[in-house]
């Protein structure tokens, strides 16, 4: 079975502060990990995926297989980063089904 | 616009009614999905279709019946609506294969009263 855990439902930081959104996963094979973002009342959008190892909007995430984690980080939060963030896992034996974590609401205060 | 589009965006209906949500994608994808987002913002897969064939059916009541007339469309029909069906339903699509990006529609806000 595959599972994704985001331990924080809400993360509130001030503008300019560093941000780390935690994500841990459980999967028996080699997973594909993603971060999706959902701005207020909008569709989910792919933010980044571990396989591409890129930085989007200043966010990065590193897959740590030893700790089974895929934390999302940004050194300086901006107000426009306020949104729901979902960590997701796709496994080869699950028909490309995405399993989502419970989501973390990030609030960036001015 | 290339996208995943779903209609209606908002739907308010009474308990016991039957309703449908339509979804279309013009991305050339072969796999489509329905996800449910509940009031606590949890997102859960409901169904997945590949080339019009059902490949994933999570533990969803059989009042929910997906229909895929072709690989660009995956409609969701719900019979005998219950209060607990109130949620946001997201359609999505991708190419088959683990790791391929899944693209989501804008969501359909269903409220059962």
Explain how this protein is built.
The complex is a heterodimer of chains A (110) and B (113). By secondary structure, chain A is mostly beta strands. Chain A has no helices and 11 strands. Chain A has strands at 3-5, 10-14, 19-21, 24-26, 32-38, 45-49, 60-61, 72-74, 83-90, 98-100, 104-109. In chain A, the strands form 3 sheets. In chain A, strands 2, 5, 6, 9, 10 and 11 form a 6-stranded mixed beta sheet that branches. Chain A has a 3-stranded antiparallel beta sheet with strand order 3-8-7, with no helix packed on it. The mean pLDDT of chain A is 90. Chain B has strands at residues 4-7, 10-13, 19-25, 31-37, 43-50, 53-57, 64-70, 73-78, 87-94, 103-104, 108-112. Chain B contains no helices and 11 strands. Chain B starts with a strand and ends with a strand. By secondary structure, chain B is mainly β. The A-B interface holds A 32, 34, 36, 42-46, 49, 51, 84, 86, 90-92, 94-100, 102-103, 105 and B 4, 31, 33, 40-45, 48, 50, 55-56, 90, 94, 96-107.
How does the SSE layout of this entry go?
The complex is a heterodimer of chains A (about 110) and B (about 110).
Chain A: E1 3-5, E2 10-14, E3 19-21, E4 24-26, E5 32-38, E6 45-49, E7 60-61, E8 72-74, E9 83-90, E10 98-100, E11 104-109
Parallel strand pairs in A: 2-11
Antiparallel strand pairs in A: 1-4, 3-8, 5-6, 5-9, 7-8, 9-10, 9-11
Chain B: E1 4-7, E2 10-13, E3 19-25, E4 31-37, E5 43-50, E6 53-57, E7 64-70, E8 73-78, E9 87-94, E10 103-104, E11 108-112
Parallel strand pairs in B: 2-11
Antiparallel strand pairs in B: 1-3, 3-8, 4-5, 4-9, 5-6, 7-8, 9-10, 9-11
